[in-house]
Design the sequence.
């Protein structure tokens, strides 16, 4: 759809320019083309076609999963940096992350150690983050995505491959992250944190043991907790919980039946219990704004530091299936192609994988790093967790049996988003 | 005068009722006074309490734990002084205030003069548009400019440039409205007298009109500056990263996450600078307009 | 105002001077206010790119694709009308909040304009004060007060005598509406004050001298003479409220209090839904155009009466 001749506006994406086209071709190579093309066409059809040129030149990127590991192609437009470079003193490192997801003292020490200014920007959810990154021009160096965005980030050529010479500390990380399925050969990513998604509650505000229910997820539909609960403001995580409640283990389902179920049960939840939709459980639960919430394990660990004076951490409870059959995730660190300071970015990755730094950061954010030196079985003994929150420890074997949030094909992604939009509109 | 004419005819005097205190037209308006006092308390007390808690010695924003300046300076990590993100938010906010004001005022004042004296369809339309932009929900402009910054290749980038452009566009109506209402009270006679005495048209504007407009220009400067540093919607959508996030955005982001009294301290710092600017502005304004009534109303931007 | 300059033709230099002076500001508004609205249309009627699903604007109206706009319109009413409740809620919240604003602001403005006497300057300063306090800070203040262990609950429980645990921030419409009233009422007090202040005290006194009671004077003199100011001040508060989403975010964060501003804010950065934000922007614009024209007319006549 070429713009009219003499158009005063120069559209950036009206049709793929040379760089874009290369990105599409790469995605095409990565994916082996044909099957994904149908999805793409479906997506174009339903949102308004973005032009025949796009459809012909590109395709949706490949979707990695544990059974389908992916080795991403190396970016040619943004090659990895050379070995042995020195960071410029006094330069700025721009980090893009969730709020309260990086210890301030950890940042300060890094600044001191390398004489670099760290500039931390925050986002509310990954959709917002991707949109802002894609708009370019922000010059962000480091981003903390979940693995379901890797395909998009590589596909749109937004990330820079890593030079492993700068990151010897990878050796301190759990072995399964040395060659992860979402990024074979860790070409673009290093792991940052591991966490589970379960249910957190306050024993003084919720009288029952939620974990003892035959189906603990039912509490979100239980009218006795109306106005007293919250779900995560993260479309995929919140909606997957609905599927798990119904015993559907494919939490990345594209089937219309599953999506209908999502819709109906989310709306039912809205009317039965009026949940808050937020990501600040680590503050709200200890503050007593509600007594029960869907929660990331890291947040419930962190919550103990936000309790008002005089309230014992023992009131905090967390449930995650003991057999590990729940949502498990890990967040990553990637170097963005648009950043001006890739050397400092590499140094920061390595710094965060240092066992001492990782432990200090854990103490601040509550999210466990996948470090060999941190023994998940002894988190209580080591003082990271109160006894009552033993269930918040993330065990390595969870990653063998737990369910993963994967990138969805575009059409399904849109269908899920529409349900979420409807939920958030509060109909 | 029409409204007055319609309003004056009254029913016959009803003297019998005058005895009742409630109906006495000359009694002191105690109820109104009560409402007014309650209103002022309601509108200002919450803010005073928020300011108070910025001096809390503990981490709580609801329980008083003793006086300290820890959240301003003492805390080596999270005080406004030591936390670089809070620190830079204050600096960026004031910087935006200066930049946006410096662009808005000359642009608005010349526009007001031009629109006031230029007769025809174009100025009438432009004038109606200025009035509309005065009340348009801010989010409409913010979304439109966000799209410009993200889907077009123009010099309008997310970050300081985008924010200043957005703020100027949104604030432009203030000086135009204020200066125009002042122009209406001045009339044209002074300028015509100057021209009769041999001044060129532009000379008349420079020497006579601008001088007489100084109070209005001054009032709009203070108003625009104070309004810019309080802005939220435009500066949030058009912010580039943490270095271009002003105080209001920090408050919004952090209030929904895990606020400490440092956030109250941050807001208090902004409040103090805002009040300082207004106070200085007001004293100067009083000097300009000695002997004129309605000075405060004008200053409120609604004259 | 009669145009007294009609007696002489202005010299050419002067005729050119005014358009020249008006030009920069007019151009600025055209390029940065009206043209961006076209960009909104181009995004709304454009497509999305296949990988990140970011908007791809389409500039040529002939090639516009109406599916996103259609999607929004068809989901306002009917069985699938999940946007409808949010829109209705916006209307109700905004109307109730504006009415409450007027109820609070009118007596305050009236008292200050008529009876404040020597305290007039002080009162006015206090009324203007909220203007200089950041909106976000004023909301933050309420977040602190309304927390479970906050001052409101503590005062309500009379220091532990009663067991009051109202969860104010748990998504109650009442909290949101009161937040809106608190946030916007200062914008109403001032234009009301300016309007009421313009009514000559002598007129009201005359009414009373002629035997009208307080209420009668208000109904027959004060209210009719202040109607213009009421209209202007209502519009000055109501229209900006239409785009509010942050009051809601700060004080509720529950989908069940979502307003149209939240719909815009939720979709504007969601991949594949950016066009819908554009649709809501256009919707709000269209809905507010009639009151806006009303406002332009009212403030014009207001200005003329004043001079």
Sequence:
């Amino acid at each position: 759809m070429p713009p009219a001749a003499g158009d005063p506006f120069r559209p950036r994406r009206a049709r793929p320019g040379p760089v874009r086209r290369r990105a599409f071709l790469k995605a095409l190579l990565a994916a082996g083309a044909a099957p994904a093309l149908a999805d793409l066409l479906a997506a174009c059809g339903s949102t308004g076609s973005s032009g025949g040129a796009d459809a012909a030149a590109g395709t949706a990127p490949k979707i990695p999963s544990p059974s389908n590991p992916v080795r991403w192609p190396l970016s040619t437009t943004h090659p990895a940096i050379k070995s042995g470079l020195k960071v410029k003193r006094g330069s700025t490192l721009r980090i893009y992350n969730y709020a309260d997801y990086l210890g301030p003292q950890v940042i300060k020490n890094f600044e001191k150690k390398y004489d670099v200014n760290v500039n931390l920007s925050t986002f509310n959810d990954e959709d917002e983050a991707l949109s802002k990154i894609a708009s370019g021009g922000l010059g962000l160096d480091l981003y903390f995505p979940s693995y379901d965005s890797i395909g998009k980030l590589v596909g749109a050529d937004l990330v820079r491959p890593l030079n492993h010479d700068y990151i010897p500390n990878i050796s301190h990380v759990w072995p399964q992250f040395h060659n992860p399925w979402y990024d074979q050969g860790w070409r673009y990513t290093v792991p940052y944190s591991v966490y589970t998604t379960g249910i957190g509650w306050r024993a003084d505000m919720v009288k029952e043991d939620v974990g003892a229910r035959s189906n603990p997820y039912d509490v979100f539909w239980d009218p006795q907790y109306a106005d007293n609960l919250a779900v995560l403001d993260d479309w995929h995580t919140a909606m997957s919980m609905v599927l798990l409640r119904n015993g559907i283990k494919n939490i990345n389902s594209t089937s219309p039946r599953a999506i209908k179920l999502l819709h109906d049960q989310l709306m039912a939840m809205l009317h039965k219990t009026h949940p808050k939709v937020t990501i600040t459980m680590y503050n709200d639960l200890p503050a007593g704004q509600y007594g029960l919430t869907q929660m990331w394990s890291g947040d419930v660990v962190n919550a103990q530091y936000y309790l008002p004076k005089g309230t014992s951490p023992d009131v905090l409870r967390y449930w995650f299936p003991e057999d590990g059959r729940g949502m498990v995730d890990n967040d990553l660190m990637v170097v963005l192609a648009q950043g001006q300071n890739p050397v400092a970015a590499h140094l920061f990755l390595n710094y965060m994988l240092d066992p001492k730094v990782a432990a200090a950061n854990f103490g601040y954010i509550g999210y466990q790093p996948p470090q060999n030196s941190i023994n998940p079985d002894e988190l209580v003994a080591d003082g990271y967790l109160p006894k009552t929150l033993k269930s918040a420890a993330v065990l390595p074997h969870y990653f063998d049996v737990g369910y993963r949030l994967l990138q969805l094909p575009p059409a399904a992604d849109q269908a899920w988003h529409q349900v979420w939009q409807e939920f958030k509109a509060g109909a | 005068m029409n409204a007055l004419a319609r309003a004056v005819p009254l029913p016959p005097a009803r003297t019998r009722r005058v005895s009742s205190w409630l109906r006495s037209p000359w009694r002191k308006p105690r109820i109104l006074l009560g409402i007014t006092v309650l209103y002022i308390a309601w509108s200002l007390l919450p803010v005073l309490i928020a300011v108070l808690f910025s001096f809390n010695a503990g981490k709580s924003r609801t329980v008083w734990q003793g006086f300290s300046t820890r959240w301003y300076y003492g805390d080596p990590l999270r005080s406004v002084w030591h936390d670089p993100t809070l620190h830079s938010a204050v600096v960026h906010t004031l910087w935006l205030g200066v930049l946006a004001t410096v662009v808005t005022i000359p642009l608005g004042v010349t526009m007001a003069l031009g629109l006031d004296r230029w007769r025809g369809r174009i100025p009438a339309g432009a004038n109606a548009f200025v009035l509309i932009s005065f009340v348009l929900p801010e989010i409409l402009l913010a979304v439109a400019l966000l799209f410009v910054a993200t889907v077009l290749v123009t010099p309008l980038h997310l970050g300081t440039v985008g924010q200043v452009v957005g703020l100027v566009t949104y604030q432009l109506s203030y000086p135009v409205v204020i200066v125009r209402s002042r122009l209406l009270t001045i009339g044209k006679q002074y300028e015509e007298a100057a021209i009769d005495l041999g001044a060129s048209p532009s000379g008349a504007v420079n020497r006579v009109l601008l001088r007489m407009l100084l109070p209005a220009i001054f009032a709009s400067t203070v108003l625009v500056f104070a309004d810019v540093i309080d802005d939220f919607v435009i500066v949030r959508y058009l912010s580039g990263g943490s270095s271009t996030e002003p105080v209001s955005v920090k408050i919004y982001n952090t209030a929904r996450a895990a606020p400490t009294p440092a956030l109250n301290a941050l807001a208090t710092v902004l409040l103090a600078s805002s009040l300082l600017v207004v106070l200085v502005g007001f004293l100067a304004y009083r000097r300009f307009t000695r002997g004129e009534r309605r000075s405060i109303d004008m200053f409120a931007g609604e004259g | 105002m009669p145009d007294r300059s009609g007696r002489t033709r202005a010299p050419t230099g002067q005729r050119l001077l005014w358009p020249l002076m008006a030009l920069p500001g007019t151009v600025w508004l055209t390029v940065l206010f009206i043209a961006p609205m076209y960009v909104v249309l181009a995004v709304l009627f454009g497509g999305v790119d296949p990988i990140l699903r970011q908007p791809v604007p389409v500039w040529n109206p002939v090639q516009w694709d109406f599916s996103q706009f259609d999607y929004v319109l068809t989901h306002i009413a009917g069985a699938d009308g999940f946007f409808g409740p949010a829109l209705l809620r916006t209307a109700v919240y905004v109307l109730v909040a504006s009415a409450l604003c007027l109820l609070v602001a009118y007596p305050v403005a009236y008292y200050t304009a008529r009876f404040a006497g020597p305290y007039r300057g002080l009162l006015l300063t206090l009324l203007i004060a909220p203007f200089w306090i950041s909106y976000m800070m004023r909301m933050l203040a309420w977040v602190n007060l309304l927390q479970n262990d906050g001052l409101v609950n503590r005062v309500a429980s009379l220091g532990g005598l009663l067991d009051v645990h109202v969860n104010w921030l748990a998504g109650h419409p009442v909290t949101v509406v009161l937040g809106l009233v608190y946030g916007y009422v200062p914008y109403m007090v001032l234009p009301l004050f300016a309007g009421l202040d313009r009514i000559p005290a002598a007129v009201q006194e005359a009414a009373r001298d002629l035997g009208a009671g307080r209420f009668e004077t208000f109904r027959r003199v004060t209210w009719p003479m202040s109607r213009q100011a009421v209209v202007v001040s209502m519009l000055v508060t109501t229209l900006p409220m239409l785009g509010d989403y942050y009051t809601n975010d700060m004080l509720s964060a529950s989908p069940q209090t979502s307003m149209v501003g939240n719909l815009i804010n939720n979709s504007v950065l969601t991949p594949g839904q950016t066009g819908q934000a554009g649709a809501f922007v256009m919707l709000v614009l269209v809905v507010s155009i009639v009151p806006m024209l009303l406002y332009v007319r009212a403030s014009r006549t207001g200005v003329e009466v004043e001079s």
Remarks:
- Chain A touches chain B at residues 9-13, 94, 96, 99-100, 104-105, 108, 117-122, 124, 131-132, 134-135, 137-140, 278, 280, 282-283, 306, 308-309 (CB under 8 Å).
- The longest helix of chain A spans residues 256-273.
- The two ends of chain A are 37 Å apart (CA to CA).
